[in-house]
């Protein structure tokens, strides 16, 4: 496979075909020429601030022309993009800044307080973006283009036994992610992809690069709206949608609409479609589902099901091979049970070099026999892969992996909490909801509602528990470790967060 270089490609296309449409965003057309010039202006501005190739910049911005130009400007300059969910607060935000030691923090207007409350940000310059539009052009940036194996981004993905880990993502990996989407979505020239995903998530990053590798364009929204979804797609002429988290189930729960069969969408590609929702979605909306599996560490997409096998995540991408390995190190074949998904590649650079400034996590995952994902899988007799969730302690909630460690470490700081444990329980929408068990501190009589309100200030929306259960004590091993598998999953006696259904829908919309 020929890796072209994304930053090079944007500037070339901006010169070769300046009026070609890259995207429609905020209802306005954005040409390749306009985006290339804006990216060059951003690169020049950052360079004048003293930032150089390899320096890190933390970006906390919602989808907008300004954030799109900033991302491409960082890629053009070879400065490392550190995307952060704008909702992130407290220790989780501090951890990102502490780990990456950025030379600049860039955020949307209104997020200054989150950074001001972060001690690690005290001596770092902050740039507040109040204009959603493209920055004005300022002439070409003449710095050298980055190389394919150069570091492009550090994307933090929740750990399972510790703080979030910063995945080192190269320019090559971003380009492979876009190539993989083009295969998943079976793109043809002229296609128009509806993009609701946030730019700061790998699911969004791979889409916003697609027009650089295929003759397609994007229709970019700043949020997911279930009630207006099919009308938006119809009016914008979109041909593809991306399903992530509970999007499929949310759309199925919507009342019938005149728009849901007037659209021109052919394919919904993505991950997390519940098997029981697959056929009803295809039949109701006339859209083919293509399920895939992957993770940021392996250029986002590892396998694709384009054969319609219900519940399967398919076969490996052309540049990947997959082994399933059991606890004894034995490679499993069809019908031999579940094993850890281990990814190998024939294309050097397709798998991350590791986690930024985290040698222990890197050594555990990046091994001589491939990348150890920590996910469970199995084969059917035809060699199709089935995904069975994480091996370790995390919950898949609203399209994000939520580390139990991160939530538990916050809850344990509440003065009325003696000990705490987090598990996942089945969700009405999406994969799982978070259920938090709390052992009160002796002599206290905590109110779950008060604890939840306290946690809201310290956790992002996707990290907040939907349910809280008070327990006198936990089931424990002889070494006093909590036995989470013995904790009750039913609804008896648990407190439920206010307007949880509304929060769930908004949470997915924000991802």
Task: Give an overview of the whole structure.
The protein is built from 14 helices and 26 strands. The protein has helices spanning 6-16, 32-48, 65-77, 90-100, 112-116, 171-184, 202-205, 229-236, 247-253, 275-285, 359-365, 404-411, 448-456, 500-510, and strands spanning 21-25, 28-31, 56-60, 80-83, 104-108, 126-129, 151-157, 165-170, 192-195, 217-220, 240-244, 267-271, 288-293, 303-305, 315-316, 320-325, 339-345, 366-367, 370-379, 385-390, 394-397, 400-403, 417-426, 432-440, 467-470, 495-496. The protein is 27% helix and 26% strand. A 5-stranded mixed beta sheet has the order 11-12-13-14-15, sandwiched between helices. Strands 16, 17, 18, 19 and 20 form a 5-stranded antiparallel beta sheet that branches. With 511 residues, the chain is an alpha/beta fold. Residues 501-511 have low confidence and may be disordered.
Write a brief structural summary.
This protein has 14 helices and 26 strands. It is of the alpha/beta class.
Strand order of the largest sheet: 11-12-13-14-15
Strand content: 25-35%
Q: What is the tally of helical segments?
A: 14
Give the helix proportion (percent range). 25-40%
Mean pLDDT: 91
Note the overall shape. Answer: globular
Name the poorly predicted regions: 501-511
Distance between the termini: 32 Å
Main pleated sheet = 5 strands, mixed
CA-atom Rg in angstroms: 23 Å
The assigned structural class equals alpha/beta
User: What is the count of β-strands?
Assistant: 26
């Amino acid at each position: 496979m020929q890796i072209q270089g994304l930053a090079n490609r944007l500037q070339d296309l901006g010169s070769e075909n300046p009026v070609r449409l890259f995207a429609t965003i905020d209802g306005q057309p954005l040409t390749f020429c306009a985006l290339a010039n804006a990216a060059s202006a951003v690169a020049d501005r950052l360079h004048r601030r003293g930032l150089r190739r390899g320096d890190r910049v933390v970006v906390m911005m919602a989808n907008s022309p300004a954030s799109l130009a900033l991302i491409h400007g960082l890629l053009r300059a070879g400065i490392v993009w550190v995307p952060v969910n704008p909702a992130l607060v407290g220790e989780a935000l501090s951890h990102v800044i502490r780990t990456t030691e950025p030379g600049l923090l860039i955020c949307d207007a209104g997020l200054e307080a989150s950074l001001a409350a972060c001690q690690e940000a005290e001596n770092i310059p902050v740039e507040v973006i109040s204009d959603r539009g493209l920055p004005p052009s300022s002439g070409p940036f003449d710095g050298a283009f980055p190389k394919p194996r150069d570091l492009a981004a550090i994307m933090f993905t929740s750990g399972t036994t510790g703080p979030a880990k910063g995945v080192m993502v190269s320019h090559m990996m971003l380009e492979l992610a876009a190539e993989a989407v083009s295969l998943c979505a079976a793109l043809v020239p002229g296609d128009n992809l509806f993009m609701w995903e946030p730019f700061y998530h790998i699911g969004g990053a791979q889409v916003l690069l697609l027009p650089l590798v295929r003759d397609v364009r994007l229709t970019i929204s700043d949020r997911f709206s279930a009630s207006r979804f099919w009308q938006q797609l119809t009016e914008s002429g979109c041909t593809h949608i991306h399903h992530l988290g509970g999007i499929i189930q949310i759309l199925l729960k919507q009342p019938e609409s005149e728009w849901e069969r007037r659209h021109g969408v052919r394919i919904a590609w993505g991950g997390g479609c519940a098997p029981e929702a697959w056929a009803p979605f295809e039949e109701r909306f006339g859209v083919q589902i293509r399920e895939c599996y992957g993770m940021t560490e392996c250029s986002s997409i590892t396998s694709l099901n384009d054969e319609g096998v219900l519940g399967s995540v398919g076969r490996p991408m052309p540049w990947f091979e997959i082994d399933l390995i059991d606890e004894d190190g034995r490679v499993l074949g069809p019908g031999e049970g579940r094993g850890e998904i281990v990814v190998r590649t024939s294309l050097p650079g397709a798998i991350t070099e590791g986690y930024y400034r985290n040698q222990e996590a890197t050594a555990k995952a990046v091994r001589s026999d491939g990348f150890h994902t920590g996910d469970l899988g199995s084969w059917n007799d035809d060699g199709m892969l089935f995904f069975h969730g994480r091996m370790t302690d995390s919950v898949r909630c609203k399209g994000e992996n939520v580390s139990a460690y991160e939530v538990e470490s916050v809850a344990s700081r509440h003065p009325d909490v003696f000990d705490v444990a987090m598990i996942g329980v089945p969700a009405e929408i999406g994969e799982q909801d978070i259920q938090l068990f709390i052992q009160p501190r002796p002599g206290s009589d905590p109110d779950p509602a008060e604890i939840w309100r306290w946690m809201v200030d310290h956790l992002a929306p996707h990290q907040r528990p939907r349910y809280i259960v008070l327990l006198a004590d936990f089931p424990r091993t002889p070494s006093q470790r909590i036995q989470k598998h013995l904790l009750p999953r039913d609804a008896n006696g648990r407190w439920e967060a206010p307007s949880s259904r509304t929060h769930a829908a908004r949470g997915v919309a924000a991802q």
